[in-house]
Amino acid sequence: MGKLVVIEGLDGSGKRTLAKALTGALEARGLAVATGAFPRYEQDVHAELVRDALHGRLGDLTGSVHGMAVLYALDRRDAAEGIRADLRAHDVVLLDRYAASNAAYGAARLREPAGGGFVEWVRALEFDRFGLPAPDLQVLLRVPTGVAADRAARREVEETRDRDLYESDGGLQARCAVAYDELAAMGWVSPWEVLDGTADLRADDLVERWFAR
């Protein structure tokens, strides 16, 4: 059975870049790697609804923190069997975002601490009720909110797409950064490791630390 590793962090923190680097370093060691990212906008109807809501196309749905959280969770529920199959067939399954994103952003929107009721509700929904595989390791890629915002703005231009309601809300992003720090400190669901997203991260060193046999 493979290890499930999740990369978490703010929009613009560099999750996709780190995932690509780790994949290359793992494969160079002869390890079989499967990758994925949430939300799965092009693969799941619940993720499509999330995108529509975040761009103001579903009326007042975005105003419901729990309603949006259920859509995010249903996307992962639909993917759960595929994740389990990937874990059986690969040494490492590497995901860009997972349930902790739901917990962090929802808590930030409600202005609750990570030890509050919403985060526990997400854990019970996604892992107990929907039966998602629990991560073996969650990696928080921490960057200052200003750096994340600048990167997200550059990506908006490069990819010719508008930032969604969450990405463009600086106050939400700042509160979400606090929520992520709290989740990591409390070891929510699994062990966490916090990395400096502004540092020169060497994927080979990380792989040596996390996956040395």
UniProtKB/TrEMBL annotation:
One of its GO terms (molecular function) is dTMP kinase activity. Keywords: ATP-binding, Kinase, Nucleotide-binding, Transferase. It holds the Pfam family Thymidylate_kin. Residues 7-160 form the Thymidylate kinase-like domain. The keyword 4Fe-4S does not apply. Transmembrane segments: none annotated. PANTHER family: THYMIDYLATE KINASE, UMP-CMP KINASE 2, MITOCHONDRIAL. Belongs to the thymidylate kinase family. This is Thymidylate kinase. It comes from Saccharothrix xinjiangensis.
